Amino acid sequence: MRQKLMALSAITAVSALMLAGCAAPAANEGSGELVFDVPDVPMLEALGEGEGQVDIIAWSGFVEPAWSDTFTEETGCVVNRKVAGTSDEMVQLMRTGDYDLVSASGDASLRLIVGGDVAPINRDLLPNFGDDIVPGMQGQLYDTINGKVYGVPIGRGANILQYNTEVVTETPESWDIVWEADSPYAGQITAYDAPIYIADAAVYLMYHQPELGIQNPYALDETQLAAAVDLLKQQNAIVAEYWADPVAQITSFLGGTTVAGTSWEVLRKFTEDTEKFGGTLPVEGSTGWSDAWMISSKSDAPNCAYLWMDYTSAAEVNGAIAMNFGMAPANGAFCELSDEAAAHCEQFNALNEEYFENVWYWTTPIEQCIDGRTEVQCTSFQDWTNAWATIKG
Amino acid sequence: MTTTTTPARPSKPLSTLLYRHRWMRLVGLLSLPLTWLIGLYIVSLALLLVTAFWYIDSFTSKVIPGFTLDNFALVFSEPAYITTSLRTLGVALAVTVLSAVFAVPLGIFMAKLASPWMRAVLAVAITLPLWAGYLVKILAMRITFTEEGFFNWLMAPFGITGPGFSIVTVVLTLTYLWFPYMALPVYTAIRQIPVNLFDASADLGAHGFTTIRTVVLPLLWPALIAGSVFTFSLSLGDYIVARFVGGANAQMIGSIIASNINLNPPVAAAFSVIPIAFVVIYLLVTRRTGALERM
């Protein structure tokens, strides 16, 4: 496995270099010169007394009594958790103004920032948000806008290609087995069931059809979106089923309906047969996700919210969340805490920036092209949602 | 001559008041259900439908009041959406027919032929699915129809492979979910058919099937319509089944509404008009048969 990983890293490193050589400044290198029209929301200047409680919208597994009880003991802030199922739900809930914090993924954060639903973050008030936070999770487009920080990183993961080693006997080097009509595994493919999956098609096209000029899978003009949709329609013919629910994906692989397709490292772990089910990051690179705490612009408990963000940025707590959810932690210092922590970091490539170099974190597609193009208008997430329904139509 | 005095009744001012004022009786009787119906149901539905004419900020997905027909234009211009609507209609009709086909013989057997003990067992068997959670039942069907699942295992000796995850499995799963809503009214209706009608039919020379066709079915019609309203409208609105057992090409109207409800509520609202239209048409058709009056 180690050797596989080494080889994989080498491949990704080489392709990353190739990409970096010929591509315009990639958006996941940082927000660069892109300027957005963002409502001016003040940030907290100084930390005051805790308000007694804090309301958090989080992914399942991010806020658990195992660490939130200690937080309450230390700070006096009682944690009220609301588990959200989707990014869209998180955005809607944050708009109500009833919540102080959200564990937003990249496909929600831009909408929250531009909608004025979240406030900039004062890093001076968060001593734990320091140098130990891995470089790849700082200064990303989805949480740093116009020079202001909006998110405190929690963890990240890549959307990998998972395969049944009894059927797919050689480690696939390319995503082609899930995209091409003549795939040997036609009819046994699974694909992610959400409009954001269009970006996966774009990543594949970036590599195989450079003439389309895609520089960033989340900045597609109409022609590029149409090409991605065509590819997805081609894939539709070989897909056994789409998955949105992790349990459905796992049973699909275990039940034999699916032998290859999009997955997360944690789902592979959940099959409890990591010999039978392999996972790889193919040569084209992939999409991925990255989550960050964001504070509501209407928060009535900003002090408790800051205390929580700081508390969860500490190596132990951040690592506990990452292990519980199954992702690479944001705080790299966690990896040195114990053998178990080191093994976890190894499995999820936590400190392997080369691995994540070729991973395009989910971000909301918007009309302003985030690859920096100004002569065309890009397609928005609404366009993607409409397109997605036509793919499965 | 003696005078009898009637014993003084305890005075009932409320009853007297209600007796004297007819409108007060009506208000007392209807205020609660009407508040529920108008306030909670019709108003909220109307509010949702109004948003079908509103705009959306394409960046932040915030809904902006206004008037546009773009959302409806989108729904009716894209071939994939029309296919999805027709597929959903087909699924709902198939589920309804399948439920009726299962319910009639089962109802006849239970009501007229089974021993009381057998009848009780079957009644439990029919209502048993209602006890389990909706999602549990769908996941059970999911496990049954996986490639290495129970169905394929059972059928392997006969060289038969199951439908896998497909539109067929969606119809089967929805039938499994909504069958009790058809079976119970049909069974109740058959129980109410007097036994001597069967005897009379037999005396006049009718065979079993003729009896069912000419005697039982006409009397069953209202029950079948009642059951079909449930199976049809419940199937139209469902999207979880398509998601879990539908495979790659089983998108339903509900799936599109679900994917838009948070991101683009106006489009979701425009889509929700389609199942409403289907149900209204269905009710109008069934009303013409006169079955609704006899329900």
TrEMBL record, chain A:
Signal sequence segment: 1-26
UniProt entry keywords in alphabetical sequence: Signal
PANTHER family recorded: BIFUNCTIONAL POLYHYDROXYBUTYRATE SYNTHASE _ ABC TRANSPORTER PERIPLASMIC BINDING PROTEIN-RELATED (PTHR30222:SF18), SPERMIDINE/PUTRESCINE-BINDING PERIPLASMIC PROTEIN (PTHR30222)
Protein's name in the database: ABC transporter substrate-binding protein
Source organism of this protein record: Microcella humidisoli
Automatic annotation (TrEMBL), chain B:
Cell compartments where the protein resides: Cell membrane
InterPro entries named among the record's database cross-references: MetI-like (IPR000515), MetI-like_sf (IPR035906)
Lipid bilayer topology: Multi-pass membrane protein
Keywords on record: Cell membrane, Membrane, Transmembrane, Transmembrane helix, Transport
Occurrences of domain ABC transmembrane type-1 (ranges): 85-286
Family annotation (Gene3D superfamilies): MetI-like
Record field: transmembrane: 26-56, 62-82, 89-111, 117-139, 151-179, 219-237, 244-261, 267-285
Family named by the database record: Belongs to the binding-protein-dependent transport system permease family. CysTW subfamily.
UniProt protein name: ABC transporter permease
